[in-house]
Specification:
Elements: H1 14-17, H2 27-37, H3 53-66
Helix pairs in contact: 2-3
Length: about 90
C-alpha cells in the first residue's frame, strides 16, 4: 500500500467516528482497514508496540456492531447478543 494513501475516519459509519480522536488512520491501520472493518478474513497482526494494533482490534469490534446499525444510525439488537472479548 502507498504510505500516503491513509484511510479517513470518515469512512466509518457516523456513530463510530467519535471513537477516534484523529482524522486519519496511520499507515498500518490504513493497510489493514479493509480486512478489519470490511471483511470476514482471519488476520494475524505482528507489529511493534505503539504501531496501532489496538485500533485494528477496535475496528473489528465496530464491524460486529455495524451489523446491528439501522439506516438512522441507531443500534438495533437484542440485549445480551453482542459480546466481545479483550485479551
Amino acid at each position: 500500500m502507498d504510505s500516503y494513501a491513509l484511510r479517513s475516519v470518515l469512512e466509518l459509519p457516523s456513530p463510530f467516528r467519535s471513537m477516534f480522536s484523529f482524522r486519519y488512520f496511520n499507515s498500518l491501520q490504513s493497510e489493514c482497514f479493509s480486512g478489519c472493518f470490511l471483511s470476514n478474513i482471519n488476520m494475524i497482526i505482528s507489529a511493534p508496540t505503539g504501531s496501532g494494533k489496538t485500533v485494528l482490534f477496535e475496528l473489528c469490534i465496530l464491524r460486529l456492531f455495524s451489523k446491528f446499525l439501522t439506516q438512522e444510525g441507531k443500534c438495533n439488537h437484542e440485549k445480551g447478543v453482542l459480546k466481545t472479548v479483550c485479551p
